[in-house]
TrEMBL record:
Entry GO CC: cytosol
Entry keyword set: Carbohydrate metabolism, Hydrolase, Magnesium, Metal-binding
Name of the featured protein: Phosphoglycolate phosphatase
GO molecular function: metal ion binding; phosphoglycolate phosphatase activity
One Pfam assignment: HAD_2
Enzyme Commission number, as recorded: 3.1.3.18
Family membership: Belongs to the HAD-like hydrolase superfamily. CbbY/CbbZ/Gph/YieH family.
Lineage: Bacteria, Pseudomonadati, Pseudomonadota, Alphaproteobacteria, Hyphomicrobiales
Role, per record: Specifically catalyzes the dephosphorylation of 2-phosphoglycolate. Is involved in the dissimilation of the intracellular 2-phosphoglycolate formed during the DNA repair of 3'-phosphoglycolate ends, a major class of DNA lesions induced by oxidative stress.
Length: 226
């Protein structure tokens, strides 16, 4: 391990944790005030990615009822109240994740989370799932002035974790993650079990892993040497 430990940066929704059941439930609770028909899992890939505010706006647009900006806040409040009250609900870490985090920390890697989910939702979710102690930093979509796909979101997360952006790997499920990593000059790994709205082979990640068992110190070392 070099002097400064490399940082492995993880996306949250669809990468670390399968949050779809609770996102869909809280979103449907939110849009029900406008009598809109519920959305399904198959819609989520088109709705998620830029945080709760964007998800609500997109759900209204999907149902043919576009929202004015000023109507969004009470709906966002409703979403947050429902999501917080149920947390962690049915959201669970993906298979093999917990072992992988332990293995990587033992090998000396520094771990961080860079999510477009609001920080005030991401932190308690990660805590309630018992994962928080693994991470040197957890940054949400509203933690800095920029968010994914802006590369500054990833580099600021790495700096907050005490790491070096020149020595990092990003692990994500969607275009925002892979694009932000590429623009930051950071190698990326894509997972296929998340919420990408395009085929993941088209995202241009450096590697794909199908299970967290494949996320080994060796694989990360290979990517860091590139
Ligand atoms: O909640 C979202 O919209 C996106 O969250 P993610 O960046 O962790 O995938
Ligand atoms: Mg994601």
């Amino acid at each position: 391990m070099p002097l400064k430990a490399p940082t492995i940066v993880f996306d949250l929704d669809g990468t670390l944790v399968d949050t779809a059941p609770d996102l869909v439930a809280s979103l449907n609770h939110t849009i029900a005030v406008a009598d809109l028909p519920p959305v399904g899992y198959e819609d989520l890939t088109h709705l998620v990615g830029q945080g709760a505010r964007a998800m609500i706006a997109r759900a209204f647009a999907l149902r043919g009822a576009p929202l004015a900006d000023e109507d969004l806040q009470p709906l966002l409040d409703r979403f947050i109240a429902h999501y917080m009250a149920g947390m962690p609900g049915d959201s669970r870490p993906y298979p093999g994740l917990v072992d992988a985090l332990g293995r990587l920390r033992e090998a000396g890697f520094r771990l961080a989370v860079c999510t477009n989910k609001m920080e005030s939702l991401a932190l308690p979710l990660i805590e309630k799932l018992g994962l928080a102690h693994h991470f040197s930093a957890i940054a949400g979509g509203d933690t800095f002035t920029v968010r994914k796909p802006d590369p500054g979101h990833i580099t600021a997360t790495i700096q907050r974790a005490g790491g070096d952006p020149r020595l990092a790997v990003m692990v994500g499920d969607s275009v925002n993650d892979i694009l932000a990593a590429r623009n930051a000059g950071i190698p990326s790994i894509v997972v296929p079990f998340g919420y990408s709205d395009v085929p993941i082979a088209e995202l241009g990640a450096d590697r794909q892993i199908d299970h967290f068992d494949e996320l080994t110190p060796d694989l990360l070392a290979q990517l860091l040497r590139k």
